[in-house]
Amino acid sequence: MSQVFGRHTKANLPVAVRGDGIYIFDSNGKSYLDGSGGAAVSCLGHSDVDVIQAIKSQLDSLDFAHTGFLTSEPAESLASKLIAHAPTGLERVYLVSGGSEAVEAALKLSRQYMLEIGQPERTRFIARRQSYHGNTLGALGTGGNLWRREPFDPVMVSASHIAPCYEYRDRADGESVEDYGQRVANELEEELLRVGPETVIGFLAEPVVGATSGAVPAVKGYFRRIREICDKYGVLLILDEVMCGMGRTGTLFACEQDDVRPDIVTIAKGLGAGYQPIGAMICSGEIYRAIENGTGFFQHGHTYMGHPIACAAANAVVTKLTDGGYSNQAATMGNYLNDALQAEFGQHPNVGDIRGRGMFRGLEFVADRDSKSPFDPNLKIASRLKAAAMDNGLICYPMNGTIDGVRGDHVLLAPPFICTNAQIDELVDKLSASLASIL
Ligand code: PMP
């Protein structure tokens, strides 16, 4: 009996003992193809010698130095690498231990920024429905996942939510893709006017929505319009790339493909690639200088922030993603994955949509393709698919999207970028067999 208090109190989970490339092995010797990189974490697979060596070397020189007293070489080097590749205007990196911490830091920094520039009346955030920004109370409060929020609603920071950019579900018949993108982006302006733009700190969104919707990218032009609206009302644009960043979509930062300049970006998951827990919040020089010239310190912090071992691992990861060409590899292999998914499921009567970018792909399941009607939630398509896939030796990330009554179940695929064509074929075969066993 496991005494680890995990997510599922009743689950009897296999015990993972070894990782090798894109596979994880359990204590019975069974192998699992890591088709979702856990939850879009393991971008380099499970036995990368360079990252492992970087961790070992760092352990030999310095284990830990509290950031209240000292900075460290791996933290400085990681920050410079990230800034060298970050969208224009982003100039400072705040290093934390994961995605939720990165989002919390972004929320608090943006509130403090408003205080520093003399706008204390700005106290609220706007985000989108069907979004996920983390499980701590601030991040959960801004997120738009009703099921995750509901029990904690009375004790959370509250935010208001506009529609996501979800073309498959929401573009009207006869509406052009561009018009659709502008229409849903304009909801931000409508919401600002409803709540009073002078009360809003920032707008928070995932460039490619991950956990709640299964790799849904915004349509072309959407984020440019969002940026215009934020500028018009002095609202910060915070992009949450915890899941879709770090090469996952084929560019180091997902927002590069949306031609948008955020004020703050959050990253995690692929940054440590699973080798170490690490996240980061990257902010504009303008925000940083307002704090520097004002209070002089950011009123926030965690004991393990900027941890040297985690930073050393992330340094090795980011070097591989950039100089080592692994972000490009995600773009190339992502095209192969997309083609393989289209070939296998393009005509499937219960696959309504195949979407995503790079090595970040989603399939949405429907009871009927023409009406796009979702499966009855009582059929528990997502949890049965997860179980069937595990039986077949495949880790994938199915989710029940019907919580708000209109979305279908979906599965998120986020395999390591090091996959070969044959391994992608194996992933698709296993997914197909798993789906066939439950439908
Ligand atoms: N933001 C997004 C977009 C995420 O997908 C996640 C995790 N799925 C988080 C924040 C929270 O990250 P963590 O689980 O590392 O706290």
UniProtKB/TrEMBL annotation:
CDD domains, A to Z: OAT_like
Enzyme class of the recorded protein, top EC level: transferase
Pfam families referenced in this protein's UniProt entry, alphabetically: Aminotran_3
Cofactor(s) this protein requires: pyridoxal 5'-phosphate
InterPro entries, A to Z: Aminotrans_3, Aminotrans_3_PPA_site, PyrdxlP-dep_Trfase, PyrdxlP-dep_Trfase_major, PyrdxlP-dep_Trfase_small
SUPFAM superfamilies per record: PLP-dependent transferases (SSF53383)
Gene3D superfamilies: Aspartate Aminotransferase, domain 1 (3.90.1150.10), Type I PLP-dependent aspartate aminotransferase-like (Major domain) (3.40.640.10)
Annotated EC: 2.6.1.62
Keywords: Aminotransferase, Pyridoxal phosphate, Transferase
Cellular component, GO annotation: cytosol
GO terms of molecular function: adenosylmethionine-8-amino-7-oxononanoate transaminase activity; pyridoxal phosphate binding
Family: Belongs to the class-III pyridoxal-phosphate-dependent aminotransferase family.
Name of this chain's protein: Adenosylmethionine-8-amino-7-oxononanoate aminotransferase
Native source organism of the sequence: Octadecabacter ascidiaceicola
Gene from which this protein is expressed: bioA
